[in-house]
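Internal ticket #5521
Category: modeling
Description: The requester needs a full-assembly model to guide mutagenesis choices. All entity lines are attached below as received. Residue total reported by intake: 696.
Assigned to: D.W.
Attached entities:
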Amino acid sequence: MSDDATPTGADPKPTDADRTQDPSHETQNELERSEAHDLEIVEVREGSFGVHGTGDTTGFGGLRRPVIMPGAATPPFGGWYDDVAQRLAAGDGLTDAIEKVVIDRGEITFFIRREQLAATARHLRDDPQLRFEFCASVSGVHFPNETGRELHVLYELTSMTHNRHIRLEVVAPDADPHIPSVVPTYPTADWHEREVWDMFGVVFDGHPALTRILMPDDWPGHPQRKDYPLGGIPVEFKGGTIDPPDERRSYS
Amino acid sequence: MTIHDDPYAGTTETPEGPVFNVTGQDWDTIDVEGIEGDHLVVNMGPQHPSTHGVLRLILEIDGEQILGARAGIGYLHTGIEKNMEYRTWTQGVTFCTRMDYVAPFFNEAVYCAAVEKLLGITDDIPERAQIIRVMMLELNRVSSHLVAIATGGMELGALTVMTCGFRDREIILNLFETITGLRMNHAYIRPGGVALDLPEGALDQLRDSVALLRKRLPEYAALCNANPIFMGRLKNVGHLDLAGCLALGVTGPPLRATGYDWDLRKKRPYFGYETYDFEVITREEPDAYGRFRIRLDEMAESLKIVEQCIDRLAATEGQPVMVADRKIAWPSQLSVGADGQGNSPEHIRHIMGESMEALIHHFKLVTEGFRVPAGQAYVEIESPKGVIGCHAVSDGGTRPYRAHFRDPSFVNLQSVSAMCEGGMLSDVIVAVASVDPVMGGVDR
C-alpha cells in the first residue's frame, strides 16, 4: 500500500476498461490485456449462471470467459525489484531458482522452483542486502485446472531492514504434493504450514510436526481444495432440495 | 458410565515408563508407590475462563513449573475463508468481520483494502471515507486494548480493572452503534468506502465520548502502573526479546515492547495515516508489564488521532463516502432507524417508484456483484494485536477465488510456548493474556 516502497512505472494500473461490468464485453477486454502484458490463461469457463448446452435460449450458454492471470515480466523490473532479483539469483546454487517473475498491482512475485525453496528462503533471510527477516504469512491456493501445477503455496516475506515486501510462489502437482518446509529458516511458518497442510493437503518435507491444526485430527479431506465436496443439507420444499453452494447457479 | 469404562483412563506402558491417565475423580486408583518423577500433562482448556475463549494449552508440568507448553487450536474454526468463496466480494465483509470479533473493523478494513487493490481503486476512495475508516479503526484499537487490559486484569484477580475496562469499552460500543447501527460485526467498511455516512449528532457524541475517555484512561495508569501486586505478577513474565519476536513472527505490542518501533501506520502508511500526528509507543521491557504499558499509551495516541479525525469530519461534511464509480459503489443507501439498520426510505422510493433503470442497477449489483480483474493482492495493516494481512485472489469473477487472512492472534499465539516454558503455572495465564489472542481470529 505504501507508495514510497513501490518503484514507479512497475505497476500497470488497471484502466476503466478492465473494470467493465457487462459480462459480454469481458472476454474481449481480457484478451486485449493479455496481448499487452503477456498474461497467462489458467482456465476457460463456459456458459453463465448455470446455463450449459442445448435448450439454452438465453445465449448465456455460448459465453466463453478465459481466466487470465498476470503473466511473466521481463527485466528490467524497475527500482529495487531488480536489485532483489539479481541478488537472489546470485545466491549459492540459486542461479536457476527463479522460474519466473510476475509484477502486478505494485507487488512482485517470484515463482521459485520447489526443490530450491529452502535454500532460497535461507539466502533471502541472511543476505545483508536482502534481509527478508520476517515471514508474514504462508497460504495456499488450489487451481484444479492448471494441470501439473494445481497447488500453489505463497510466502509473504517482509524486509523490515529495507522496508520491502515480496512474495514467493511455489507450485506442486496434485499427484506429488510435496514442498520443502521453511520452518528451519522461519520458525513462524510452523503453524502456517500446518494450516496449508490441513486445508490443501500440501506435504511440507522437513516440518517438525506436520499435523492438522484447525480441523479435527481425524478429519477426512482438505477443505480449502476446490474439489472438496461441500455437501449440502437437503431442505425439502414441495419435493425440491437446495444444492450445495458449489453446485448452485452462479455468475462466476 | 463408571470411570472403569472410560477408554481414556487406565495405565499405558511407554518406552519412558508407565503413563497413568486420569480423567477426573479417579486419582485414588493410581498406586503412587514406587513411581519415580511426577511429570504431569495437563489440559488447560479448551473450557477455561482465563484462556480467552476456547484455547487449549497442553502443559507438561513438574509441580508448578512448566516443562513444556503447546497450544491446541481449532475449536472455533468456522470456515470463514471457504465461505467467502461462495459469496460476492461485498458480502465477504460480512463474513470476515466475525473473525477477530474484538477488533472487527480491522478485519473489514484489511479485506476491503485488498479488494480495492485488486480493483485498482486504492487512490479513488473519497477522503471522507478514509477519515471515517481511520476514526473507526482507532476507536476500535482503544476498545480492543481495553478488552485486553480488562480480561488480563480479571485473570489476575484484579476485578476492578475488568469492570473499568468494560465500562469504558461500552462508551465506544455506543459510538459504533450510533454510527453503524451495530455494536459488533458491523460490515460497515465496504469495498469502495463505507456503508453509510455519519448520522446527525454523531460528531457531538464523538467529542463528548473522547473527552470522557480522556478523563478515564489515566485511571488505569493510577490503579496499575505502580501497583506492587500488579508489577509483581507482570514484570519479567512472558519474556520474549526482539530476535524471538522476529523468528516467531510476533508483531504488535509484544514486538514494540522490545524497543523496535515497527508500526505499519508509520512504516507503510495506508488510509492517509501519514497525515495524522501521533507517536509510535515503544518500551525496552519485553515482558507482560511492558506490553500492558504499551497498550495503555497507545490508547492515548489513538484518541489523539480520533480528535484529528473529528475536526476533519466537521470540515468535510456532505462529501461522498463511497467511490464515484457506480459500477462498484453499493447502490443501496442504508440508514439507521429507530428499529435498527435498514435501507433508507428515499432509496426504496427511488428504485420502486421512480426509476426502472435504478432498480435494475440495484438488482444487478446486489445479486451479481461487481467483477474483479484476475490476479492476487496482499495487504497488511496494523491491528491492535499486530500485523493483520489479507491475501485475496480473483479469477475475474464476482466472488473471491480465495481469501486468506494472516491473523496476528494466530501467529502471536505460537510464541506462548517460548514465553511459558521454564516458568510457573500461574505465569502461563499472564503470558497468554499479554499476547491478547482472540480465538475467533486464530481459528477463523
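Resolution: model delivered.
Comment from assignee: The first helix of chain B runs from residue 80 to 84.
Ticket closed.
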